[in-house]
Amino acid sequence: MTHDDVLARTIRSAAVPVPARVAQEPARELLERIVATDRRPRPAPARTPHRRPRLAIAGAAGALAAAVAFTLTFLNAGPAFASWTPEPSPISDTEARDIAGKCLPAQDASVARVVIGEKRGEYAYVNAVSPAGSQTCFRDRNGDVTNTSILTVLTSTERLGAGGVELYSWGQLRTDEGYVRIMAGHVGSQVTSVEINLRTEDGDSSRTARATVRDGYFGAWYPEGLDESSSNTTTLTVRLADGSAVILSARELYEQPKLD
C-alpha cells in the first residue's frame, strides 16, 4: 500500500466519529485537498489536549490526533527561544496578508480577513477568518509558513456576548529552536485583554504571555517543551472594559467555550 493510500485511509478513518462539523462541505473539501496535495512523510505529532468534537480539523497536513486534530512538527532541534518576548509586536497589514497568502488555499486567501497578526522575536503569527472558518498560520525565523490549525465553524459573537471566551486553537509544533504553543480564540465585545499564564507542576516557576486582542479575537504563541505541555498548568486571565477580570483554565476552555 502506498503512502498516499495510507494517508487517505487514516484521514477518513479518523473523521468517522466526528459529528456535524466534519460532515459540512468545507470540512469535506479540506480533507480532499489534504489527500490530493500532501505527499510528504511527517514526523510524529506533539502532544495536544483533547478537544471536544466541535473542532473539525487542526493542522492542514500531517499526522492525525484525536478528533481529527493535527499537530505539525519541523525537523531539527536547536537552542532555546532567545528572541521570544512575552509582549507581542504588531506587523503591517501587508506582511500579515503575505503570510496568510502563503498559508491558506488560494480560494480562501482571496476572501480571508486577517484578525490577528503579531511578532515575537524572529517569528510571526497570523489568524485569518474566511467563510471556510478560522485558520492560524506561523512563520518561522527562516521564513517558512505553516498552517497550524483550521476550525470550520466558530461560536457566534451573539452567543459570546460581552464577556464570553472561546479557545479554538491550542496546538503545539516544533521549530528548529524547540517546541511552541499556538493559541487562538474568540472573545466577547467587552473583553479588552487576555494574558496566558503557565505554571510548572511543582509551582516553583511561571511564565506569562500577553495575547494580541483585536476585533473580537485573541492570539499568541509561546515556547513550551514537549514534556512541559502535559504537566504545566495553563490559565487565561481575561479582563473586561468595566475593570473586572476572570481566570479560566485553558484546558477546560479548550473543551468548552465560556459563554456570557
Total of DSSP H or I helical runs spanning 4+ residues: 7
- The proportion of strand residues reads 35-45%
Distance between the terminal alpha carbons, to the nearest Å? 50 Å
**Average of pLDDT:** 76
* Widest sheet, order of strands: 3-4-5-6-7
Radius of gyration (CA) equals 17 Å
Count every beta strand, where a strand is a DSSP E run of 2 or more residues.
15
Q: What does the main sheet amount to? A: 5 strands, antiparallel
Structural class by helix and strand composition = alpha+beta
Estimate the helix proportion, in percent: 10-25%
Report low-confidence residues grouped into runs of 5 or more. 6-24, 30-47, 52-78
Overall geometry comes to globular
Task: Give the topology string: H per helix, E per strand.
Answer: HHHEEEHHEEEEHEEEEEEEEH
Quick recap of the structure?
This protein is α+β, with helices and mostly antiparallel strands and 260 residues long. Helices cover 21% and strands 36% of the residues. The protein contains seven helices and 15 strands.
What can you see in these coordinates?
The chain is α+β, with helices and mostly antiparallel strands. 21% of the residues lie in helices and 36% in strands. The chain starts with a helix and ends in a 5-residue tail after the last helix.
